[in-house]
Amino acid sequence: MTEKTFTPRIISFLCKWCSYSGADLAGTSRLKYPPTILPIRVMCSSRVNPIFVLKSFFSGADGVLIGGCHPGDCHYQSGNYHTRRRVAILHKIFDSFGLETKRIRLAWISASEGVKFARVSSEFTEELVGLGENPAKKEIFL
Amino acid sequence: MKGIAGKGVFLPEKEGINKSILGFLKTLLEKYVFDGIMVPMRVPAKNSYAWVLVREPSLIMKASPLAPVMPVQGAKALKSLTRKGKGTLNFAVLMRPCEIRASIELTKLNQIHPEKITLMSIDCPGALPLSDYIQNPEEGEKRFEALFTGESWSDETSKPVCQICDQFSWQPASDLHFGLMRGQKKGIFLISNSEKGQRVLNEMKLQASESVSEWKKSIEDLTKKRQKKREKRFEEVQTMAKGFEPLLETFAACIGCHNCQSACPICYCRQCYFNSTISRPDSDFIFQKAEVRGGISFPMDRIFFHVGRMTHMSLSCVSCGLCSDACPVSIPVAEVFSYVADQTQRTFEYRAGESGEDAIPITRYRMEEIQGVQNIVHQAEGAMSKDG
Amino acid sequence: MANQLTIKKSSEQGLIDFLTFLLETRKISAVFTLRETGKEGVFDYGLITDVQMLKQAIPLHPFMPVNAGQELSRFKAMKKQVAAVIRPCELRGFIELIKRVQGTPDHFLLISYTCGGALRFASSLHGKGDTNLPGYWKAVEKGENYKEIRPTCKACEYFVPMNADATVSLVGKNHEDECVLELHTEKAKEMAAGFKGEYSEEGTKSQIVDTLLEKRKAEKTRLFQEIGSVMKDLGGVVEVFSRCVGCHGCSRVCPMCHCILCDFESHLFDHEASVIEKEFSRKEGMRLPTDTILFQLGRMNHMSFSCVGCGMCTEVCPADIPVASIFMKTGSETAQLFDYIPGRDIDEPVPVTVYKEEELSKLG
Predict the structure, then answer these.
(1) Who contacts C191 (Cβ-Cβ below 8 Å, separation ≥6)?
(2) pLDDT reading at B103 higher than 80
(3) Are B30 and B57 in contact (CB under 8 A)?
(4) Is the C or the N end of chain C the one with fewer CB within 10 Å?
(5) Residue B336 to residue B314: CA distance in whole angstroms
(6) Which residues on chain C are in Cβ contact (under 8 Å) with A88?
């Protein structure tokens, strides 16, 4: 019996100053990583309202990635600290209801870390293949 | 039933009304007459229903053409789809007559764009009170089955406003109507009202060849009965709502949750006046009021809210009764609002949702009208000129 | 000065006498408390300025038509003083609102009481309240959960008020014999000066309070487990919230949901037909209106750590969803992430407004 693998769809929110530039660098360096990520540029990772993550999840995204600057390096001083707390809360709520927290990932990727961006993308994609398709895709009563 | 076609398509009832209608809808999807059909479907918790826009033909067999309860007004669900414009897909919606009427009103208010929507209505025996059904869904299903398939529709278990509804059948503004035939010849009449309705019949290769007069008569007879019942009930409701003390008494338990406003299809304002900061007085004003009267209630301005809401929406009220269903303290909001709406709509010879062409009275005027108010003005003017 | 004031009247009458004293001596301009409206078993909160009207007051009755914290936040800065009698959860709600710049405590004398729980709407309206009262008071005296109180009340471990100026002891006391008022703050002691009653140092804490606390903690564990056993995956979450009609009544009665225009009622969720059609084309069918489950989980993300478990949301829900129990569970878990207890300390900032440089190191 052949195992049916699927191509995960990842929505990512990348902060302009660090992680989006890092993603750009991965591209210009011709690094190989799966074409599963849809990048959405935001000014800072703390722009991400948890609603965006939830909407992505309920619209059927297999995974959601939030990329920000390393703690201490935020262009706006403290944005990413708030992002970290927000993701902690979101993870806790998912966990509380048995929803897969692994589908929501926070990554600190600086502008010079093209390699890290490619690595995170590949790892995340592989993990999602293992988890399977987002059950919300087929759910009628959302 | 002015303007109704004399003939319709008769579909004999094969395995019950539900299956017959669902089978018809399934064929509509299979033949791509529509890209999707919005119908009620039982929710996973199995003790309520929700609107589902169905794409897959096999899924529609799990739906219900007419649900025992109406937790969300169909017009509201339709509004969520077409508020900003018509989209590209062709959809049909199967709704109760009051939901069709609310959709027409919302269209006039620019909240629904129905160009690619085919409105299908169905004879409605009424809906059950929501909280009763949720408490005991098995009992609710039995009761509704009896209502829906029974010979008599004058049941005492449907919602109070349903029991006095005189617009429970064919709607002038719907595109296609499912008339339910009882008695010897059980079946469904498909009656087309418009080009959209005719398109459906054409694509399904159906001819409107049977006379609807027998069914029409049964509906007209019941309508007359209901109209009498409605008038009588409104006389009783007057004691609940006419005068300051009765009004206070009826709404005494109100906690100001505004569920009635949320559930109402006509109340579409994103930010209702009564939820805004403008309607929240400052502390000095609160104290002024309290000191004059010796004390005031909190939350403030609940009667103001209800009378204000009546003023804003009674011209478009379709008596669907969702307000009463949503009220957590069992205030008979729907009956009071229906009574007031009956009065205000009569003043302008207007019936909400009857015609897409009839503009909502507050948006138009005639040079000579509302003689009653005009007379008051004349009296005042006359009195003024006497004073010199 | 002494901490405890005992009045030899029933708890409710003693408190009304105290409030009458404050009003008559103009130490306060008004009393905010529960009162009977005179209509068939109907009650509401009232701002009372006339001493005669205090006769209608029922300050300690187990009724909660609205969360009073929400109402107190409506009072913007003013020079007058108001004595407010509210439940511990309403007080915690008020404190949480103050942290969000939605009210101020300065012009209130906050009086609360050790709370035996609030009755459900069905058990307090239309005359049912009176029939339930005798059984209720007996249970409070014995330190038990009366059967008709709200599910979240049965699981509430914060029934001893935090941040009150004064507290009436009800749990473990015979409310017909005496009114025991504990004065915590200087403000309370100053206000009480001149009032005739027995003053003493604070008495020993009642054993019965501890008994009730244990019962409440046990019920909390049980309730949370019950919820967790049903809502253990997406299917479970969808099933429990499937009856939701999107009225947002829960949000409107919640003291924490103070936003004048909620995200979920804004343009963010006013979709173009094309957006809905796109999602529709990927599924066999989709519920309309959209974003029902999203609203519930989104609201949890925004406010659950501040949930005070007052139970208003469940009472108001037209679809009988146990919203309060679910939010209380999630709220307890999200608040624990930051060692936070809503309403415990007025100077403790809301967790999402602050951060520590070193924390949650596993994330990122």
Answers:
(1) C22, C27, C28, C83, C109, C165
(2) yes
(3) yes
(4) N
(5) 11
(6) 337, 360, 363
Neighbours of chain B (3+ CB pairs under 8 A): A, C
Judged against a pLDDT cut of 60, whether residue B388 lies above it is answered with: no
B43 touches chain A (CB under 8 A): yes
Residue indicated by tokens 């890209």: B35
Contacts of B252 in chain C (CB under 8 A): 37, 39-40, 42
**pLDDT for residue B264 is more than 90:** yes
Token reading at B382: 């006359």
pLDDT tens sequence across C169-187: 999 998 999 999 999 999 9
Q: Is the peptide bond before C289 cis (omega within 30 degrees of 0)?
A: yes
- Per residue in A51-67, pLDDT (tens digit) is 999 999 999 999 999 99
User: Do residue A97 and residue C236 have CB atoms under 8 angstroms apart?
Assistant: yes
- The answer to whether the CB of A24 falls within 8 A of the CB of A37 is no
Chain B residue with CA closest to A141: the answer is B43
- φ/ψ of B349, rounded to 5, equals 50, 45
Q: What angle do CA B179, B185, B191 make, to 5 degrees?
A: 25
**What pLDDT is attached to residue C161?**
96
Q: How far apart are CA C360 and CA C364, in angstroms?
A: 9
- The answer to whether ipTM exceeds 0.90 is yes
Model confidence at A2: pLDDT above 50: no
Identify the bridge partners of residue C30 per DSSP, sorted by sequence position: C82
Task: Closest CB to A96: pick one of C235, C333, C363.
Answer: C333
Prediction pTM value: 0.95
- Residue A28: burial class (beta carbons within 10 Å; 0-12, 13-18, 19+): exposed
Instruction: Indicate the domain borders of chain B.
Output: 7-230, 233-366
What pairs with residue B242 in β-bridges?
none
Residue C294 at interface with chain A, using a CB cutoff of 8 Å: yes
Residue C275 near residue A55 (C-beta atoms within 8 A): no
Calculate mean pLDDT across residues B118-140. 95
pLDDT of residue A1: 40
Residues from chain B contacting residue C258 (CB–CB below 8 Å) = none
Phi first, then psi, for residue A106 (nearest 5°) are: -110, 130
Using only C-alpha atoms, chain B has a radius of gyration, in whole angstroms, of: 23
Q: Which residues of C touch A137 (CB under 8 A)?
A: 282-283
Chain A stretch 8-67, residues whose beta carbon is closer than 8 A to a beta carbon of chain C: 49-51, 54-55, 58-60
